[in-house]
Amino acid sequence: MISMMTATISLPGWPSELEAVQQQIDSGHYTQAQRQIHALLNRENAGQTTADLSALAFEAERMRRIEMDFPLTPEELLPAIQRYVPDATQEDVDRWNAQGLLESMLIDGQPRYFVRSAYNLMHLSDEAVARARDSKRFTDKAPLYRLHPHHREILESDAPVRQRIQVTYTLTVDSDAVPAGETVRVWLPFPQEIQRRQVNIELLATSPAAHQLAPATQPQRTIYLERKAQRGTPTEFKVRYAYDSLSSHTEIVPDTVKPIAPSDALAPYLSERAPHILFTPSLRALSAQIVGDETNPYRIAQKLFAYVDQIPWAGAREYSTIRNISEYAASAGHADCGQQTLLLMTLMRINGIPARWQSGWEFSPERFDTMHDWGEFYLAPYGWMPMDVTHGLLDSENEAERWFYLGGMDSYRLIFNTDYSREFTPAKQHFRSETVDSQRGEVEWRGGNLYFDQWNYSMEWQLLDSPEAN
């Protein structure tokens, strides 16, 4: 049984073979890489460790996931775009492609386009949006991505604004995805108790009733359930809980911000953490370009935040297919919330500003909700404060409103994770579907992991002072 949470860049003791395979994959030579992986996995007495074998096996799985994310041939791309832009022509597609707006991979010499290329075009091209039929960008549907009365309520309040939220989360495994009689093992994300941000967590029900709740200190907290599969019947798991979400806002006076004193407590949030937080030459150069000669830590944070905010949002490929997410976000021409957050964290750490991850779900005063990633940063003497670069700068002449999400947070959050790529309790035995985040859940049986195409999920939420569920 091979256990692996994340794919590594290389492994000591057996790096050359793994690196050769990775280079083949990154060059698009999938068939050749698959043959080499098969040969290496079946080679006897080669001194491979379990970690070596796991890393190789995941490279094969990575290729499978990439091919699922990039299924469109050049011939299929135009019809996909015409569902949004009916009058689009091949000349339009060629132009948008030349502008780098249509994400693609070269697989065995053939270009393959991202499954959400047409949808993402609506977020990357004003021209395409102007010609589109009834198309709304993601942020057009999200009330808190623009200045909202809720932001002003927080800024004007003497105490945190509080929402009591009830959640029912359901994960359903497809019929016959697991043989009848076998045990299906599921990890559903579960909220963390976080002082001044998320409190009074109450587990109301699970189905099945037997469960194992991870410790409150688990960085990626889950509730574990298992159930026997039945032939011809979906296997359903459900959890219901309630909690209080609290707003946060700190008024930062730039001249009072001081350089931090070195400490063991802050050291992990200032350092590199492969593979997604690396101080590469290109990111160091980008940091220097953004920051210039600024020395005030808060002003540096503002410059970095504003830069990452201007990277257009677009739907993301699965994180497990990306070798270095912060580098990807800096170079792809677009990024989603987690990619933006990891880039901002990396740039902040390069500049001596501690930064760390948070993620879960976001709700709203209206009906909008989505999975979401954001973070926290540390300034002396203020301590840890939230940051959400995907919400970014709000359109206001008022400085407190404009910079609300650099030091502030709304009260419509559900926090599952205070770090990324951390182990579960109990430990997962097979590859994770999501190797970085934990928002949808994870599923496996003794025969292996069940990827996202083998199950689905639903999130229902309700403000407890409101009768309407979402």
Brief digest:
The chain is α+β, with helices and mostly antiparallel strands and 470 residues long. The chain has helices spanning 15-26, 30-41, 50-69, 74-82, 90-98, 117-124, 126-131, 149-156, 281-291, 297-309, 325-331, 337-350, 399-402, and strands at residues 104-107, 110-113, 162-173, 183-189, 198-207, 212-213, 222-228, 235-246, 248-249, 355-362, 370-379, 383-387, 408-409, 413-417, 442-445, 448-449, 455-463. This is Transglutaminase domain-containing protein.
Number of structurally distinct domains: 3
What structural category arises from helix and sheet content?
Answer: alpha+beta
Helix segment count?
13
Q: Specify the CATH architecture of the largest domain.
A: Roll
Organism: Microbulbifer harenosus
Protein name: Transglutaminase domain-containing protein
Domain Transglutaminase-like: 329-391
Descriptive notes:
With 470 residues, this protein is α+β, with helices and mostly antiparallel strands. The chain has helices at residues 15-26, 30-41, 50-69, 74-82, 90-98, 117-124, 126-131, 149-156, 281-291, 297-309, 325-331, 337-350, 399-402, and strands spanning 104-107, 110-113, 162-173, 183-189, 198-207, 212-213, 222-228, 235-246, 248-249, 355-362, 370-379, 383-387, 408-409, 413-417, 442-445, 448-449, 455-463. A 5-stranded antiparallel sheet has the order 6-7-4-15-16, with no helix packed on it. A 4-stranded antiparallel sheet has the order 5-8-3-17, with no helix packed on it. A hairpin with a 2-residue loop joins strand 1 (104-107) and strand 2. 41% of the residues are buried. Pfam families: Transglut_core. This is Transglutaminase domain-containing protein.
